[in-house]
Design goal:
This protein is α/β, with parallel strands linked by helices and about 500 residues long. Helix content is about 45%, strand content about 15%. It contains 15 helices and eleven strands. Strands 3-2-4-5-1-6-11-10-9 form a nine-stranded mixed beta sheet, sandwiched between helices. A hairpin with a 3-residue loop joins β10 and β11. The radius of gyration is 26 Å and the shape is globular.
Length: about 500
């Protein structure tokens, strides 16, 4: 037998684990103290130098040169102390559900007619939504929803959580040759299902992870929670050097199934499908040579302060006391306003100077001449090569593509993910990136923009830079990538 492959991200030794987090804390405190002392010392030194030269009656040019070099050294020291640590996406994994959970349109209609609580009008409405949404015949629903009537009790939802999380964890650890005990931070986001013990505790127990692991369970954050988890991991890694974080995104469909007759709540039964994603982030030096991407920035915006936006998608009871998520008619209008506000913040971070200048000129022309009534949308293709946008529906995807002036190839990953797997909430963005990789489109230096939009409402973005050219093998698209893209 051959020797096992060495782990590129091996766990810390027992002695290292005992000193790792205290050392990180001491380092953080030292950096904070050093910044405070150096800032005050700089002000004192500059004041003393200026006063001394002024007392001796020297001209300003006499002390300008040493003062310049002093300020330059202070600026370099400040940059060194406050520079962000690079965060790398080592690899990611997406769930490929078993084929027996596939739900063709005919199967969905048959089950809907047999459950007993839906009338013919509701069934026809749901089928109309499914056919017009852009979904294909190969999407999946979890096993509890294949029963008649559907089983949505707590134990079935926990079983579903294990069914989606464990395969992704196994695949991710195998891809990266990493031990579960090497993980420092564990983040799981699931909007509608929050058991006790939490989903993170289920993973810690199943994989025997370390006792000093820090775990975070996010709920109620909607379809944008995947990028929110990345942002949380980035902030944690910025405070703790030489660490590894896992971020999982999923949605437990069983607990969100609505067995009522309110059409505004029935829409979610039609759109959401089974899926799960997991990714490994690290700021360790040895992670860069194995990593796929480097995280450039994350941006978060929200509109929960606006009552109309806040009520556009709410989980509540209907008149019969059945809980479901109500989608109001003005949801698309709210999504458009949210996206505009989000892009104004993101654009300042990633757009080149030329696009920023054009936008400023348009603002000035609009303010002082009033001749420009059309909204100027910067060309995000000048800053980003690949786009992963919310696959909430064919109409919304095309509307976002039209608003951003994207090419058909740019919106193709979202449309094909929706067709093949449906809307998998926060996990869907990683199926889109897996599609781009499976097509062999990611080249070294390419930038990828992922944007998620969810209830609240809120929008979150992450921008990545590819560290190498990628042609993925395996993954959720391995057996069907050659059949895509499909034509409407």
């Amino acid at each position: 037998m051959g020797m096992p492959a060495p782990s590129p991200l091996s766990p810390l030794s027992s002695e290292d684990r005992e000193t790792h987090f205290p050392h990180s804390l001491y380092a953080h405190l030292f950096r904070s103290l050093f910044k405070t002392v150096s800032r005050n010392l700089l002000l004192f030194t500059v004041s003393l130098e200026v006063s001394t030269f002024a007392w001796w009656g020297c001209s300003p040019t006499t002390y300008a040169v040493p003062l310049f070099f002093l300020l330059l050294c202070a600026a370099m020291a400040q940059y060194w102390l406050t520079r962000p640590r690079p965060v790398y996406l080592v690899d990611f994994s997406c769930l490929k559900p078993p084929s027996h959970l596939r739900v063709p349109f005919s199967t969905f209609r048959e089950h809907a007619s047999l459950v007993g609580f839906l009338n013919q009008e509701s069934i026809d409405f749901m089928m109309k939504v499914i056919r017009s949404s852009g979904q294909g015949e190969m999407t999946y629903l979890p096993s509890p929803l294949h029963f008649l009537p559907p089983r949505t009790n707590h134990s079935d939802c926990v079983d579903e959580a294990c069914m989606v999380l464990f395969p992704v964890m196994d695949d991710l650890l195998a891809k990266t040759c990493t031990s579960p005990r090497a993980i420092d931070f564990l983040i799981v986001n699931c909007s509608g299902f929050c058991p006790s013990p939490s989903l993170t505790s289920i993973l810690v127990n199943a994989y025997g992870m370390r006792e000093d692991l820090k775990n975070y369970n996010l709920s109620g954050m909607g379809c944008s929670a995947g990028i929110l988890g990345v942002d949380l991991a980035r902030r944690l890694l910025d405070l703790h050097p030489d660490s590894i974080a896992l971020v999982f995104s999923t949605e437990i469909i069983s607990t969100g199934w609505y067995p009522g007759k309110d059409r505004r709540k029935l829409v979610l039964n039609c759109l959401f499908r089974m899926g799960c994603s997991g990714l490994m982030l690290s700021n360790r030096k040895d992670a860069k040579r194995r990593a796929k991407y480097e995280l450039l920035c994350t941006v978060r915006t929200q509109m929960a302060f606006d009552d109309r936006a806040y009520r556009s998608a709410v989980r509540e009871e209907d008149e019969d006391g059945i809980t479901g998520v109500t989608l109001e008619r003005d949801l698309l209008h709210v999504a458009r306003e949210l996206l505009v506000a989000h892009l104004s913040v993101l654009g300042r971070r990633i757009l080149p100077f030329s696009e920023k200048a054009l936008y400023v000129l348009w603002m000035l022309r609009r303010r002082y001449s009033g001749s420009s009534k059309e909204i100027h949308v910067p060309d995000f293709k000048s800053a980003v090569h690949h786009f992963c946008i919310p696959p909430s529906g064919k109409g919304l995807i095309k509307e976002i593509g039209k608003s951003l002036k994207l090419r058909p190839q740019d919106v193709e990953p979202a449309l094909m993910t929706l067709h093949r797997f449906g809307n998998q909430s926060a996990a869907a963005l990683w199926y889109e990136l897996a599609y781009i990789e499976a097509k062999g489109r990611v080249k070294k230096g390419d930038k990828v923009w992922q944007v998620g939009m969810g209830t609240g409402p809120k929008a979150n973005s992450a921008v990545w830079r590819s560290l190498r050219s990628i042609k993925a093998e395996g993954g959720p698209w391995s057996d069907c990538i050659d059949a895509y893209p499909v034509v409407d």
